Task: inverse folding
């Protein structure tokens, strides 16, 4: 079957999709977006978390056909998504209408280690994960970033218990979560300071 | 960080920004937060096929027949291979003993053993085709424990053993046995005022790294193969893969793909040979990615263990003797079992002074899942038992458990049960003092202005208590882990360092085969190069087999050994750069000949700080490059009868204090805090040090209260191969982990550093158990603790 949906603000068309394929498989293997991770494919680890029409979901549990006509945001689009969101609040003079039509910029493979989005800075939560030492092997990181970003959108000043509750669906095996807590606190603090 | 002990000798100025001792950020951090970092499961190649493994559905059986015809006839299938399709006479692999069949031959020895492999154009096609392979089994009795393994009429798991351990084991179903005997326990026991005995049981733990076993094999034009894979040791893989393929090692070109955690579970091969076989058979790139279900069968686990201890002590609290017997279940194949036995026995009494010991450790061959390396490697199981014993003895003596430990704590100069003197700081008593001195979390910490926050209580959002029936307990533990490969192993590493001018700036490139599995070795290598070469720009070359072996990313050894190799190569590069400088500019300034020279801030400077030349001018068009192996002090094997020998390179120590709250009615445990104090020698990257300690601590928490692979004792089949049924700690299960880091330099190690990755995984588990015992008054001789153990239901 063919599936048409929007990923990180851009219309996408996936052809020859077998009915049993998950959204995760289509993103990773058909659309060249392997940022969403395949740690369990059982909906237990949260490493494949994406936003489907704004709601965080385990993309491994979403059948590809279910996303027809809908909007998906993955870790690859998180920086632009966050930037458009802050612009959408009027912070940089962009109208809400424009914000709704935001698009992720293409990646530039020539930039090497300095990262993927030469035209975009990292989102606050991405930068905080790096600064706080919340990344080790990094396999849980994309899912945690999407989940944490969504929580901070809803709850800009979370308590520690709020953070733990919101991220309890995302397993991490390396860090013991302490630096992840630090990262989310840091992102929240920077956000409230307007940094 | 904590206070500094002995000053750390640094051979070269450490002023360069981003050098050792700073919490520089990961070079791969940006790629990892943007989703661009290419893990092994992200590999993609045009026209690639997907590989699938068919695994045995029974634990022990003869294979009567395999019929692949229906699978082969499935549209989209390119190849189906069984044992009969293996191309050479080498059909087994293994870390030490080559006893593991690439594909089962005539017999399967554990549930989930690979029997056949399939390549197809879609992963689901490959899965369905594999399911169409018909395997007829004739089941055999299963060996599941020591009694069934060593019974006189026991079926042998491996009939024709020829390995070098067979000569000294009591039974062919014992992989390896290591006794360690020192002094005279019978005599010493006569001095004991109290004698405490205990039997302990340690469950089977899974590494549960999040990135599944995966990789991509691409056939090359010269008949060889390129393999992109997540592993802990590229060269060890290569040594095992090439003979099975019938290729010379140089035709198997391995590159490390992104590794999503390891913790010991990637020391053994998983899909490497299978992907290469299918790629060479089909002439197409083949990708294999395990799902989580398969991952539980696709790597070895931590050895479950039965441990029997006897401790004696005098009335004034001095240990008189320790007797212990540690029985590790190695499962169907040897993997790292012999080395795990060596660790469990040599570290079997913990970080204490005991002159009279009688220790025995064995690993069994059974039909249970194969067990091998996992963080802590034999020392974890022993620590769980000896620390429970220490609490029991203290209780018997009416002493404070921390004071009792401190009274018997080893220190620098203590002789190990192996006869090896501990010749660097061993601050066991100090770590206990520090962890005890840390502030306690407030009582009734769940109470807030709005009433009880159930998220802070046992049972959490299940809302099972608002504090009723909740009892607090506090427990302590300390452990000892060896660093590096022991028992005479040639544990070297190789580093290639290059220095040249790129775009008007001096740049160092560090090339090693070290597997970066998340620990931050790449961060530290760049820091070492900056410190030693005085440059800002350091490029970390991808790890591959085009450079010499770095050894394994395990045994807490990489910062020590590959870090040491990078430091050594940098020093050699520095010498060459200075020679070039002397040749070019020596006549301009007498200091070139007379002063000690450093590389600092991109310049050659004297130790007094005078600038002699810019590195850009010294190097010019020239590139200076060195590739060199580096070794730590050699070790010796343990004597097979007495266990005596200088078997270890270095020791690592950590202590924990656990604070738990237990709902005694429902048997639910909430760990409130897990404080840790650890000596790290020298923190090369303090932020990464904390990450290792907190991560290791949490894995110890997991085996204390939730993690266990459940194997049916009747069928030897795994009952819970999923994250639904095998639980690892979530962020809600994990408490705050305050850390106190001590830095007492080991003068034998680069920069005085101490390997740190494993020690925190040891003492975390027994500290939590001690805290639960403290809260409940129960004996609790097994881990993990389940609710029924606390409620008696």
Result:
């Amino acid at each position: 079957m063919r599936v048409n949906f929007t990923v990180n603000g851009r219309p996408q068309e996936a052809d020859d999709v077998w009915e049993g394929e998950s959204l995760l498989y289509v993103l990773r293997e058909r659309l060249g977006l392997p940022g969403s991770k395949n740690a369990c494919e059982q909906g237990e680890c949260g490493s494949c978390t994406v936003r489907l029409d704004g709601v965080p979901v385990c993309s491994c549990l979403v059948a590809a056909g279910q996303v027809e006509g809908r909007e998906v945001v993955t870790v690859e689009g998180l920086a632009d998504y966050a930037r458009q969101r802050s612009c959408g609040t009027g912070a940089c003079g962009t109208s809400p209408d424009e914000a709704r039509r935001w698009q992720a910029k293409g990646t530039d493979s020539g930039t090497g280690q300095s990262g993927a989005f030469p035209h975009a800075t990292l989102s606050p939560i991405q930068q905080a994960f790096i600064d706080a030492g919340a990344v080790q092997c990094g396999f849980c990181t994309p899912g945690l970033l999407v989940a944490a970003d969504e929580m901070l959108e809803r709850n800009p000043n979370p308590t520690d218990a709020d953070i733990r509750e919101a991220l309890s669906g995302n397993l991490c095996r390396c860090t013991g979560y302490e630096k992840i807590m630090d990262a989310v606190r840091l992102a929240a603090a920077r956000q409230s300071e307007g940094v | 960080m904590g206070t500094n002990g002995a000053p750390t000798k640094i051979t070269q100025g450490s002023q360069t920004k981003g050098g050792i001792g700073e919490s520089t950020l990961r070079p791969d951090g940006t790629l990892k937060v943007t989703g661009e970092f290419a893990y092994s499961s992200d590999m993609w190649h045009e026209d690639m096929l997907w590989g699938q493994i068919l695994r045995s559905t029974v634990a022990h059986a003869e294979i009567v027949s395999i019929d692949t015809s229906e699978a082969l006839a499935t549209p989209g299938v390119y190849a189906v291979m069984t044992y009969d399709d293996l191309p050479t006479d080498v059909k087994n692999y293994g870390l030490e003993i080559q006893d593991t069949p690439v594909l089962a031959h005539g017999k399967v020895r554990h549930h989930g053993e690979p029997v056949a492999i399939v390549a197809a154009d879609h992963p689901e096609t490959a899965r369905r085709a594999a399911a169409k392979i018909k395997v007829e089994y004739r089941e055999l009795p299963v060996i599941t424990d020591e009694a069934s393994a060593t019974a006189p009429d026991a079926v042998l798991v491996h009939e024709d053993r020829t390995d070098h351990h067979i000569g000294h084991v009591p039974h062919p179903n014992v992989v390896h046995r290591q006794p360690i005997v020192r002094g005279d326990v019978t005599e010493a026991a006569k001095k004991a005022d109290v004698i405490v005995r205990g039997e302990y049981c340690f469950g089977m733990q899974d590494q549960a790294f999040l990135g599944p076993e995966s990789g991509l094999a691409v056939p090359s034009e010269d008949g060889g193969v390129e393999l992109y894979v997540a592993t802990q040791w590229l060269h060890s893989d290569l040594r095992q893969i090439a003979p099975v393929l019938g290729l010379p090692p140089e035709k198997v070109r391995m590159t490390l793909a992104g590794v999503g955690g390891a913790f010991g579970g990637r020391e053994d091969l998983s899909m490497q040979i299978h992907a290469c076989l299918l790629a060479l058979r089909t002439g197409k790139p083949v990708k294999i990615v395990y799902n989580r279900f398969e991952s539980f069968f696709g790597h070895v686990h931590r050895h479950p263990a039965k441990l029997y201890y006897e401790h004696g002590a005098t009335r004034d609290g001095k240990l008189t003797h320790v007797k212990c017997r540690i029985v590790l279940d190695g499962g169907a194949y040897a993997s790292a079992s012999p080395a795990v036995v060596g660790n469990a026995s040599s570290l079997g009494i913990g970080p204490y002074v005991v002159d009279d010991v009688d220790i025995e450790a064995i690993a069994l061959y059974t039909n249970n899942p194969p067990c091998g390396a996992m963080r802590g490697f034999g020392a974890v199981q022993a620590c769980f038992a000896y620390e429970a014993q220490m609490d029991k003895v203290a209780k018997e003596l009416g002493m404070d458990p921390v004071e009792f430990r401190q009274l018997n704590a080893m220190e620098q100069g203590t002789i190990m049960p192996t006869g090896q003197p501990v010749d660097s700081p061993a601050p066991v008593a100090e770590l206990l003092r520090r962890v005890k001195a840390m502030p306690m979390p407030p009582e009734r910490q769940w109470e807030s202005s709005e009433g009880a926050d159930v998220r802070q209580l046992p049972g959490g959002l299940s809302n099972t208590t608002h504090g009723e029936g909740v009892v607090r307990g506090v427990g302590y533990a300390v452990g000892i882990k060896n660093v590096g490969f022991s028992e005479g192993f040639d544990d070297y590493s190789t580093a290639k360092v290059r220095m040249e001018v790129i775009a008007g700036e001096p740049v160092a490139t560090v090339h090693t085969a070290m597997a970066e599995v998340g620990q931050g070795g790449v961060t530290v290598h760049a820091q070492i190069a900056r410190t030693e070469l005085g440059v800002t720009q350091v490029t970390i070359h991808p790890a591959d087999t085009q450079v010499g072996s770095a050894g394994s990313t395990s045994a807490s050894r990489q910062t020590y050994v590959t870090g040491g190799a990078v430091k050594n190569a940098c020093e050699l590069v520095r010498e060459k750069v200075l020679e070039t400088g002397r040749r070019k500019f020596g006549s301009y300034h007498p200091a070139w000949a007379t002063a000690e020279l450093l590389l600092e801030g991109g310049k050659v400077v004297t130790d007094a700080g005078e600038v002699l030349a810019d590195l850009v001018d010294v190097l010019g068009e020239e590139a200076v490059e060195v590739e060199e192996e580096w070794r730590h002090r050699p070790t010796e094997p343990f004597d097979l009868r007495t266990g005596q020998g200088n078997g270890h390179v270095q020791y690592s120590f950590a202590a924990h204090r656990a604070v738990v709250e237990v709902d005694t009615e429902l048997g639910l445990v909430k760990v409130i805090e897990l404080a840790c104090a650890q000596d790290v020698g020298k923190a090369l990257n303090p932020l990464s040090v904390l990450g290792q300690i907190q991560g290791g601590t949490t894995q110890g928490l997991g085996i204390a209260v939730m993690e266990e692979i459940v194997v049916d004792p009747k069928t030897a089949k795994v009952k819970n191969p999923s994250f639904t049924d095998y639980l690892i700690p979530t962020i809600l299960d994990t408490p705050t982990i305050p850390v106190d880091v001590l830095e007492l330099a080991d003068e034998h190690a680069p920069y005085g550093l101490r390997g740190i990755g494993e020690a925190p995984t040891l003492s975390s588990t027994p500290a939590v158990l001690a805290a639960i015992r403290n809260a409940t008054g129960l004996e609790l001789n097994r881990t993990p603790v389940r609710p029924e153990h606390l409620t008696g239901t």
In short: Chain B has 19 helices and 33 strands. Residues 558-585 of chain B form the longest helix (28 residues). Chain B has a mean pLDDT of 96.
